[in-house]
Amino acid sequence: MDATLPLRDAISPAEASPASARLGEALSVAGIVHAYSGAPAVDDVSFDVPAGGVAAILGPSGCGKSTMLRIISGLVTPTAGVVRLGARDVTRMPARERRVGMVFQNYALFPHMTVRENVGYGLSGLKGPEKRAEVDKLLALVRLEKFADRLPRQMSGGQQQRVAVARALAPRPTLLLLDEPFAALDRALRADMQFEFLRLQRELGITTILVTHDQEEAQAVADRLIVMNAGKVEQAGSPSELYDRPRTLFVNTFVGQASVIKASVAAESETASTLRLSTGDEIHLPRRSGFMRGTNVVIAVRPEHVVLHEKPAPGAIPARRMMAVPQGPLRLHDLLLADGTPLKAAERRASGASDAPPGGTVHVTFELDHCRLYPSS
Ligand SMILES: Nc1ncnc2c1ncn2[C@@H]1O[C@H](COP(=O)(O)OP(=O)(O)OP(=O)(O)O)[C@@H](O)[C@H]1O
Ligand SMILES: [Mg+2]
Predict the structure, then answer these.
(1) pLDDT digits over 102-125, tens only?
(2) Which one of 234, 253, 272 terminates a domain?
């Protein structure tokens, strides 16, 4: 597998069975508000997930991710707003009638039941050989045929997670919700599980929402990201939209890495602007800044848009090298500007500049088209 390819593209659509890509229904939430005993947890949240799509809700602890999943699944009724699944308004529909499967962070398997019994629990309509055959099918789907008679405690974290997925899939949901499904797994297992999960999702075509803290995971598995902060959606869109065109500083620094440099607008015209950095250096943008002269702003710059020069260069700013670590084909530098502002820079490892020892001085310029400006908070 090409390691640089997002997982979702590495699994070819040809591997998905065409007959099955009909299970998923589109989800739409609009104007969702919810407060637990007075304290607001989500505030006016709206987003859509197309039928068969995979969306990731991403955001810091406490921002309302799990609350949104509970509202969509029917475990919590929102104070205001509408939840639609396909053509149905399910806002006040009991959870068991919604055809929404949920996998909780701790998997929540019944500890005294075998794998077969756990998975069969969701198949209350079936009995005897019919039920057995259906459970066998689900276990084959998550590749646990040989584990049917084990108890959860006799299995690894990744295997238990697959049982939880099989159990959530048993009632044939049209929407699958996963709350931090891979958080408890080590890095290697997590990558395997993400791959397995995507295979399954492609095979079944079930609309899926997963919650994660981990932006790399979100970018790897989802075709749509919903970034939440303090109970609100900061931005929703494709992974590349959020990476390339973040609308807020929060999204800019939460999806991908970015260094933040304080500055003020020293000159502004229709076609150009000058920013005075907190270091006293000036940089000239070949475009309007969009702010009035004198406004305090912050500049967000991603490591790959910082250019390193060994010698002073026109417009370059001096920086101290603190540390450099190899990361695949790149070398990531931790630098400090003259006023102590930290700056991350990435360069291809082949280039000569990478071998200088820490502690020296380097000179940096920025790819100005990619520097984004935000009002200073
Ligand atoms: N049952 C509850 N009663 C009262 N407050 C709650 C309850 N559940 C969550 N909250 C509060 O609502 C807010 C949102 O919580 P939520 O569980 O949705 O966050 P989260 O984004 O899932 O966080 P994490 O990443 O830590 O799981 C938090 O401030 C939390 O303390
Ligand atoms: Mg949570």
Answers:
(1) 888 777 889 999 999 999 987 878
(2) 253
